From TrEMBL:
Residues 335-457 form the Mur ligase C-terminal domain. It comes from the Bacteria. This is UDP-N-acetylmuramoyl-tripeptide--D-alanyl-D-alanine ligase. NCBIfam families: murF. ATP binds at G132, S133, D134, G135, K136, T137, T138. Its EC number is 6.3.2.10. HAMAP family: MurF.
Amino acid sequence: METLSVAEILGWTKGRLLQGNPKTVISSISLDSRKLKKNSFFIAIRGEKYDGHNFLKEAFERGAKGAIIDSKFTPTYFLPPLLRFAKQNGGGGLRRGGKKILIQVADTRKALGDIAAGYRKRFKIPLIAITGSDGKTTTKELAAHLLSSRFRLVKNPGNFNNEIGLSLTLFKLKKGIEVALVEMGMNKPGEIKRLSEIAMPTLGVITNVGQAHQGFFKDKQGIARAKAELLGSLSKGTAILNKDNQFFPFLKKRAKGKVITFGIKKKSDFQAREISSVSQGIKFKVNNLKLKLPLFGYFNVYNILAAIAVAKEFKISNQEIKKVLRNFKPLPHHFQLIKLRKFCLIDDTYNSNPLAFREAIEELARMKTEGRRVVIASEMKELGKFSRKEHYLVGKFIAQSKIDFLVTIGKLAKEIGKGASQAGFRKENILHCQSNEEVVKSKKIFLPGDLILVKGSHACHLEGVVEKLKNQERLTSI
């Protein structure tokens, strides 16, 4: 991060300077009092588990040059000991000339975004924003992999895709950075709009519109409108859209500038052909390019196409794309094939929603195996009033696919079993477990030669099941 003045922060946040010199310069911003650096500025954010205001004294003790507090902060409880500490360390109490900076704003979370937006304006560089119901993180990582072969790049780590994660990513911008690449997530209307106001993207990608976070919306049309908020920020920028998605016409109408398309079924600017699964991943053709990647799933073809569309906008050649993608490493917990001594696991525990679940089932059905195709299914979160119905429909889908054995975990996942059995899936091939531990202990689930898909929402912690099974296999193979 490049240096900022307190005056700039005050201008961007419309905050009130309670103490300190507005000419003071800071070199980093932190939300974690344990990770403060020299000349850092601490922003006290209120979260579900912790309130940053409780760590103000610790932040100053660790060397924070200043802090931002919100208007709900109660001076009578917190401020006296804080100011006593500041006075002991040259702060001088509440006065403009004090060395320790204290700024008050209405909302510290919003102030963080406002500072990030102001800081972003310093850098006249392309910024790519990626959103969608599925495939955001994989598409972002693929695009970053391609672009970093030629450009100095900043991207958000993992799925740091909310206002806090985006803001902290933008603070990584500095002289010499040529491109920024960010993922944008949401679970209610207006969030993508806010993230776009902060990031000011020049190119936007919408991977698809599905049923992720459906519980926060009346219908899928509402999800599509929320994703389309990204397009509203691209006054002259390029939009990259999935032509196969049912909401493509809706999204295209809302794009203000150039539109580039990708897809498999419909004729697109980047259309995949001759797709086939191979032992180590997937191969296909797109335009004049033949590709083979260590990724599994037709759904990943869409992610690859979107990333290639981004790369071509930056004039990266076909030859370079082919060379770079060959070395892409699959992301942990994203349909990750793990070959164990007796059977194979597919770790798809990163997250889940109805569309992603169906895509995973379709790919499992295509894959070759010596034994059974087994699904271990936990709950899909954030579906609200649609939860029971969507779990039931996933079960029906499983019954219509080439799946041999089904394991469900949790109350809502029981609806998956109900949907499967009522659609003709044999009841003796359905096992319901109350906990992840019960799954690991069950011997009838894991037979030699089986191919086992483990899938559920991140909140269900199915990655723990995968790790325990891997550890068991290591122990039995010693």
